[in-house]
Amino acid sequence: MSRRNMSWERPFLNAGAEPLHDDVVAGLDPALVRVCGDLDVDGAPILRSALTPLLHRRVELDLTEVGFIDSSGISALLVHFRHCQLARGSMTIPQRHHDHPPRVLARPKGPAHRRS
Known about the structure:
With about 120 residues, the protein is an alpha/beta fold. It contains two helices and five strands; from the N terminus they run ββαβαββ.
């Protein structure tokens, strides 16, 4: 697990096939959370732990560098959105232009994953 400590940033957190990590720039309004890697069953808890301290804040999620989102990732986003509303915070995911949009619930391709 690699860690980078800066006064304005949360340390890098890694997990998953393409490790998820986040940068939290909390001094901004809204707080900016940059998420990179796969937002899957391994990455969702990492995202939740980064977002939980920000429930009462306005948060902007940058998912530009997310390559894959599964149902665990979608659930983490929806649950945090609801908790933000209850805490009178907010969460937005601004539209970004992607060269390669993230795969959401995509089935892996290749010979090992073909049905007979």
